[in-house]
Every structure is written in structure tokens, then in C-alpha cells.
Specification:
The protein is mainly beta and 130 residues long. It is built from no helices and 10 strands.
Length: 130
């Protein structure tokens, strides 16, 4: 018998205010990294998550067992962990503060514009993945 519990479907065309290569500020999280800046490496818009490197990078620790036949050394490995995009704010280069963005249409496509300063961010390609 099939389950009556419906799993929520992920949106096919999720929107995201950050793109790969953007400078961002971490709004929430551990006190050690809250308010710190970093650069977005990769964005997963359907999952609403982004991988960030820099001062505000989030890490997972994986314990790996040694395997001499495969040449794998044992120990703990730190890997970058995706962060939810709602916890990230785009860094405005004119004011050097976190900002919200609005979208404007132009000939070249949709352009992100900082709400307060009016700075236009480059309309590049998004680093998207499943």
C-alpha cells in the first residue's frame, strides 16, 4: 500500500539572490563566524543552499578509516558544508555593508540592484546545480 504522506516537491525554477563569485556576509550561525564575509563558490538554487569559502565558511568533519591498499590515510577530514541562502546577505561594494537586492530588467537580462545604494551587480551566469 502506498504511503499517504506526500513529500513536498522542490520548485523547478527556484530563485536565489546570490550567485557564484558573490561576496556575502553570514547573518546567523555560530558566534565565531557570524557577521564574517566570504565568497560563494557554488549555488544550489533548488535546495536554496550555497557553499561559501572564506572567514564565514561552514565545515563538516568526516572520520575516515585508513585504507593502505587504496592509499587512503585515516583521520578527520573537514569539508565545506552548504549554507541556506536566507542566512546570507550580499555585500554592497559601495558601502561595504550587507544589503538586500531587487531585480531590474534590462536589455542584457535581469540585473540585481542594491536597495539602498542603487549599485548594479554584474549580470553574470549563475553557478547552478541540481
Amino acid at each position: 500500500m502506498a504511503s499517504k504522506v506526500k513529500k513536498p516537491k522542490l520548485p523547478n525554477h527556484a530563485k536565489c539572490h546570490v550567485r557564484s563569485g558573490d561576496k556575502v556576509v553570514l547573518l546567523t550561525g555560530p558566534k565565531a563566524v557570524r557577521g564574517k564575509t566570504g565568497t560563494v563558490i557554488k549555488v544550489f538554487p533548488r535546495l536554496q543552499r550555497a557553499i561559501v569559502e572564506g572567514e564565514c565558511a561552514q565545515f563538516d568533519t568526516k572520520h575516515v578509516k585508513a585504507n593502505p591498499q587504496a592509499g587512503v590515510e585515516g583521520g578527520r577530514i573537514r569539508r565545506l558544508r552548504p549554507v541556506h541562502v536566507s542566512n546570507l546577505a550580499l555585500l554592497d561594494p559601495t558601502t561595504n555593508k550587507p544589503t538586500r537586492v531587487r531585480h531590474e530588467r534590462s536589455e542584457s537580462g535581469s540585473v540585481r540592484v542594491a536597495k539602498k545604494s542603487g549599485h548594479k551587480f554584474a549580470a553574470g551566469t549563475t553557478g547552478t546545480a541540481g
